[in-house]
């Protein structure tokens, strides 16, 4: 029985497709055929589930990133204990383990090893958050906001106002890390508390829609640095979907050719990719503007940031429509009051304040995201490695070094300095990541998995070099394909 074995659901989700009874056995190559949201099979511990068109999934469209694949580890990474009970109604049969030819005994031992490590971390209590830590982080953050507001309210000095705008930029960056932790359910076991805290730090304080963020960020976590396998599938990382501005692989750089009738690169793409190592930082400055725009569109039903998000919004709608709309509206209300110097400033001066805060925040946030993944391995969705290797090899940890002290990195990066460890265990609270890091690092050493870390300077140089390498490859390729150029 397909479509979750649920007749009432079948009437909602379209015609029922018979895929056999529950004693059915499937080969890996059969599973691999079901890779689109309309026809999506997933495997969990050698059991096969048909989740085709299950747009009501509480986690949203991210489920389709694993259509036609094994979801055992990503399921463990994202779900509360007990969510597994819901899987029963989607069960359609068993996988024939011998048909999974791409896994030898060493690979199977490795997978068992990292699943055991996860169980050990659970036993150690590493998924329990420290409430005093989060009370301190939230209070510190609100103090930054209060100081930034007071600097505008009580002072007429330009230097004070610029200082306030930069502080606001930092405040928004830190709001981002707090919303991130709450929405990964690191802090509260009860999902609703995490969501409400996420709406406070995200929508109200930062101007970012919770649902826009969840869709994009959970998708990124599920398939970091991966290209979509086809135009119909939803198995690519939205965070590297930065064309035509930046290309993270030669394949991505060439991907816009198919949009043009003549199959050639547009003049814009040629120049954007050619100079991307130079335009990288100016683009980061504008990142927050783009995120504000996408958030506004999502919260007010004016569009979606990606095909996946569009499908999710069409089929499922917003999880908290009223709270999201109100949160965003209140954000612009307080931001408008502050940016106008509470009615004292001229329009150009207000815009100067707004853009200083907005651009600095974009830079502070995107710098950390960039260091986390850019310049690391990029894969095709069809050839992605196992969960652990995918997460580790696409991700970079950030350390202190070259004059930047560790305590500053810890504060500035908000837990994402342990990006590798966070990607392996997204629900682990920030306060436990340093301890987890040691175990993860030694596990990687034991199995020969490349674990990468760099300080902020070296990491940034790696990112710029990677962009330049893609540009160089792209230019050689353009000349080869179009010698008249
Ligand atoms: C048959 C397969 C699946 C079932 C039955 C299922 C079920 C659920 C349930 C009951 C929840 C809400 C409770 C919780 O957060 O644990 C949930 C949330 C979630 N699921 Fe799934 N899920 C499935 C597959 C997947 C897959 C393959 C992914 C990722 C690739 C995924 C990603 C998520 C995420 C990110 C959330 C949390 C969303 C939030 O914080 O609002 N799920 N899922």
Automatic annotation (TrEMBL):
<protein>
    <recommendedName>
        <fullName>Cytochrome b5 heme-binding domain-containing protein</fullName>
    </recommendedName>
</protein>
<dbReference type="InterPro" id="IPR012171">
    <property type="entry name" value="Fatty_acid_desaturase"/>
</dbReference>
<dbReference type="GO" id="GO:0006629">
    <property type="term" value="P:lipid metabolic process"/>
</dbReference>
<comment type="similarity">
    <text>Belongs to the fatty acid desaturase type 1 family.</text>
</comment>
<dbReference type="InterPro" id="IPR001199">
    <property type="entry name" value="Cyt_B5-like_heme/steroid-bd"/>
</dbReference>
<dbReference type="Pfam" id="PF00173">
    <property type="entry name" value="Cyt-b5"/>
</dbReference>
<dbReference type="Pfam" id="PF00487">
    <property type="entry name" value="FA_desaturase"/>
</dbReference>
<keyword id="KW-0443">Lipid metabolism</keyword>
<keyword id="KW-1133">Transmembrane helix</keyword>
<dbReference type="GO" id="GO:0016491">
    <property type="term" value="F:oxidoreductase activity"/>
</dbReference>
<feature type="transmembrane region" description="Helical">
    <location>
        <begin position="133"/>
        <end position="154"/>
    </location>
</feature>
<feature type="domain" description="Cytochrome b5 heme-binding">
    <location>
        <begin position="23"/>
        <end position="96"/>
    </location>
</feature>
<dbReference type="InterPro" id="IPR005804">
    <property type="entry name" value="FA_desaturase_dom"/>
</dbReference>
<dbReference type="InterPro" id="IPR036400">
    <property type="entry name" value="Cyt_B5-like_heme/steroid_sf"/>
</dbReference>
<dbReference type="GO" id="GO:0016020">
    <property type="term" value="C:membrane"/>
</dbReference>
<feature type="transmembrane region" description="Helical">
    <location>
        <begin position="351"/>
        <end position="371"/>
    </location>
</feature>
<keyword id="KW-0560">Oxidoreductase</keyword>
<keyword id="KW-0812">Transmembrane</keyword>
<keyword id="KW-0472">Membrane</keyword>
């Amino acid at each position: 029985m397909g479509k979750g074995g649920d007749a009432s659901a079948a009437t909602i989700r379209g015609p029922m497709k018979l895929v056999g009874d529950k004693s059915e056995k499937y080969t890996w190559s059969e599973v691999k055929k079901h890779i689109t949201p309309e026809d999506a099979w997933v495997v969990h511990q050698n059991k096969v589930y048909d989740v085709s068109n299950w747009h009501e999934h509480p986690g949203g469209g991210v489920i389709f990133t694993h259509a036609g694949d094994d979801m055992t580890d990503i399921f463990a990474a994202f779900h509360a204990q007990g969510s597994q009970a819901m899987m029963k109604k989607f069960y359609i049969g068993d996988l024939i383990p011998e048909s999974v030819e791409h896994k030898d005994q060493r690979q199977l031992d490795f997978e068992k090893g990292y699943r055991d490590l996860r169980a050990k971390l659970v036993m150690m209590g590493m998924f329990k958050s420290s409430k005093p830590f989060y009370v301190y982080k939230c209070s510190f953050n609100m103090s930054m906001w209060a100081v930034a507001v007071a600097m505008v309210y009580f002072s007429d000095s330009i230097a004070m106002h610029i200082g306030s705008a930069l502080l606001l930029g930092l405040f928004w960056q830190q709001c981002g890390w707090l919303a991130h932790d709450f929405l990964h359910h690191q802090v509260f076991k009860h999902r609703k508390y995490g969501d409400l805290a996420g709406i406070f730090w995200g929508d109200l304080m930062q101007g970012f829609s919770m649902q826009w963020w969840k869709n994009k960020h959970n998708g990124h976590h599920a398939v970091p640095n991966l290209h979509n396998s086809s135009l119909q599938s939803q198995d690519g990382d939205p965070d590297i979907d930065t064309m035509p501005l930046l290309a993270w692989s030669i394949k991505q750089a060439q991907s816009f050719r198919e949009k043009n009738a003549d199959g050639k690169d547009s003049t814009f793409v040629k120049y954007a990719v050619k100079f991307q190592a130079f335009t990288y930082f100016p683009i980061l400055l504008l990142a927050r503007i783009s995120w504000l725009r996408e958030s506004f569109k999502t919260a007010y039903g004016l569009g979606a940031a990606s095909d996946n998000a569009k499908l999710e919004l069409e089929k499922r709608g917003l999880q908290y429509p009223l709270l999201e709309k109100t949160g965003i509206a209140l954000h612009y209300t307080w931001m408008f009051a502050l940016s106008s110097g509470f009615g004292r400033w001229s329009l150009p001066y207000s815009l100067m304040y707004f853009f200083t805060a907005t651009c600095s925040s974009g830079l502070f946030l995107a710098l950390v995201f960039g260091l986390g993944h850019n310049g690391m391995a990029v894969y095709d969705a069809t050839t992605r490695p196992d969960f652990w290797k995918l997460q580790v090899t696409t991700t970079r940890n950030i350390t202190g070094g070259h004059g930047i002290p560790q305590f500053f990195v810890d504060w500035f990066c908000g837990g994402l300095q342990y990006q590798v460890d966070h990607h392996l265990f997204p629900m682990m609270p920030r306060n436990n990541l340093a301890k987890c890091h040691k175990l993860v690092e030694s596990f990687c050493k034991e199995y020969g998995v490349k674990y990468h870390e760099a300080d902020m300077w070296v990491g940034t140089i790696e990112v710029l070099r990677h962009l330049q390498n893609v540009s160089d490859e792209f230019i050689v390729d353009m000349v080869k394909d179009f010698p008249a150029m």
